[in-house]
Specification:
This protein is of the alpha/beta class. Helix content is about 40%, strand content about 15%. The chain contains nine helices and eight strands. A hairpin with a 2-residue loop joins strand 3 and strand 4. Helix 4 packs across helix 5. The radius of gyration is 18 Å and the shape is globular.
């Protein structure tokens, strides 16, 4: 991949325009059931615990956005789940694996099963959420809160976001290292989508999220011309591998998000039409890469 990230930026901007001026629902690009005898693709869903991997997988499989309710509590069983999908005129058979997020041992086993010397997916959907990860159990919440409190004991959403982003970056760097060192990935991996999940929760700062995840100018950084660590890792991955990359905002479910039980929850800033427009754009991006 060249060092020109204009196409990646354009893909992100197209998603924003789709929300700002939504057209009629594009049902022709939605997923649906298809018969046997199709071209087969293997896709891995990766990302940190609580980033929204399973919610995104379910939205793609079921062809729609869930309104309200609870976040999916745990990832799917770490085995390949076969689904037949139709993306417009593109008829494909997808073997999808959601890498478990909650148990480190399960995550390692799942990653080994999809990225080894002999196996690699065709594409990776790496799910991130700009620090809005869901922390499920109280012990893990306590660990997070202790790490995020400042010297006075105060706890803020920004401090929690920073803690999650540090873990998210380390996880992505590990994934990139595994890709770079795996011969099967160098032969078979063709594309990656960085899915910036839960975008409806931070739509008022969506440009800041873009600057963090898309390589290029980062106006919020210090100095202002610096890239985030995530952008640098993504750029390095593209420089060392012949893969196509997209970075797009996505929302799979309209929910409240609590950084901590002691902090006020954040509410969705989009309605179902806006979130549906993001999902439609994601389908189009997936179709183009496949």
């Amino acid at each position: 991949m060249s060092d020109n990230w204009d196409d990646v930026q354009a893909g992100w901007d197209a998603a924003i325009r789709a929300v700002d001026a939504p057209a009629g629902r594009s049902s022709h690009v939605r997923a649906g059931k298809a018969g046997p005898g199709l071209v087969r693709h293997t896709i891995a869903f990766t990302g940190e615990p609580g980033a929204g991997k399973t919610m995104l997988f379910q939205a793609l499989s079921e062809g729609g956005v869930r309104l309200g309710g609870q976040e999916t509590r745990k990832s799917l069983v770490p085995e390949l789940g076969h689904s037949n999908l139709v993306l417009g005129s593109l008829r494909i058979r997808v073997s999808a694996l959601v890498v478990p997020g909650q148990v480190a041992q399960e995550r390692d086993r799942a990653m080994t099963s999809i990225l080894s010397e002999h196996t690699s997916p065709t594409g990776i959907i790496h799910v991130v959420c700009w620090g809005h990860n869901k922390v499920w159990n109280r012990p893990n919440q306590n660990v997070m809160e202790r790490a995020a409190r400042d010297s006075s004991g105060a706890l803020t959403p920004e401090a929690i976001r920073a803690w999650h982003l540090e873990k998210e970056l380390a996880d992505f760097e590990t994934l990139c290292e595994r890709i770079n060192e795996t011969r099967a990935a160098q032969r078979s991996l063709r594309w990656m989508i960085v899915a910036v999940s839960k975008a409806d929760l931070f739509w008022d700062r969506i440009d800041d999220a873009r600057d963090y995840y898309v390589p290029g100018f980062d106006a919020a950084a210090h100095p202002p011309t610096a890239e985030s660590g995530f952008s640098t890792a993504l750029r390095d991955l593209a420089d060392h591998n012949d893969i196509r990359i997209a970075v797009v905002p996505i929302s799979s479910q309209l929910l409240r998000h609590s950084f901590s039980d002691s902090l006020r929850p954040r509410l969705s800033q989009l309605d179902s039409t806006g979130v549906g427009a993001l999902l439609d754009h994601f389908y189009r991006t997936l179709k183009e890469l496949m």
